[in-house]
Write a structure and sequence with these properties.
This protein has about 240 residues and is an alpha+beta fold. Helices cover about 40% and strands about 25% of the residues. The chain contains seven helices and ten strands. The strands form three sheets. It has a five-stranded mixed sheet. Strands 1-3-8 form a three-stranded antiparallel sheet. The protein has a two-stranded antiparallel sheet with strand order 9-10.
């Protein structure tokens, strides 16, 4: 449905037909995301999720994650930034797909719940349970979360307020899956938030430096995420 809708949008359609097709496309994409979340949650609950460990490019993973949300952020007038600690290894060993899944979940949430201001990602080296690790922090200036709700937001099918689903959409599975993935990879996910002033989600993962060259490694320097007709420079 998504593929055929994309093809149809590339043909000569009336403005009314374009609106219909765009609605079909966005609804299909939303439904696909829900199905994928439920499948991932079920796999983790049953202990069938496999963590694949291999060398990958950290900068490439970060850039591709940012590219998923930069367009939406710009459309809302948000400032999207990335701050990378000096001396970060480019090649690390871990499950790239799952690290990216956590990053995208947190970045998408930050963008969705922020009406004005900023969304920022920072990555730095850290020590976690006597292992070499990396700390990822996603901060925003959005709606924030009441202190009484902070513990429950990591529960499946739970959102901070009953009105959240009606206002912003979502199933309440993204944070639950992100926390479970962090746990599966030997890490930890936490949150600090002030209602009305924004939130900071931080996860720490034990990712060792790769001694082997990684395919698709990015050179050092500022990360640039392609958005629309030109790149958006991000702080490094």
């Amino acid at each position: 449905i998504i593929g055929m809708t994309e093809l149809a949008l590339g043909t000569d359609v009336t403005p009314e037909q374009h609106d219909y097709l765009t609605t079909v496309q966005s609804s299909s994409t939303g439904l696909l995301a829900i199905v994928n979340d439920i499948l991932d949650f079920s796999k983790i609950e049953l202990g069938h999720l496999q963590i694949v460990t291999a060398p990958f490019s950290l900068r490439k993973c970060i850039q591709e994650s940012l590219e998923m949300i930069v367009g939406k952020g710009h459309a809302k007038g948000l400032e999207v930034t990335c701050d990378l600690d000096s001396g970060l290894p480019d090649g690390v060993i871990g499950d790239e797909m799952r690290v990216k899944q956590i990053l995208v979940n947190l970045l998408c949430n930050a963008t969705k719940f922020t009406g004005e201001g900023y969304v920022s990602l920072s990555v730095e080296r850290a020590d976690y349970e006597h292992a070499s690790a990396l700390r990822f922090s996603v901060a925003d200036s959005g709606v924030g979360i009441a202190q009484a709700k902070l513990e429950s937001i990591f529960e499946a099918f739970t959102q901070a307020e009953q009105s959240t689903t009606r206002r912003f959409g979502g199933t309440g599975l993204g944070l639950a899956i992100s926390k479970m993935l962090c746990d599966c990879m030997g890490g930890h996910l936490s949150v600090e938030s002030t209602e009305g002033k924004g939130s900071t989600f931080t996860f720490v993962l034990p990712l060792e430096r790769s001694t082997k060259p990684v395919q698709g490694a990015f050179p050092t320097g500022p990360i640039e995420a392609e958005v629309g007709s030109g790149p958006m420079g991000l702080i490094s």
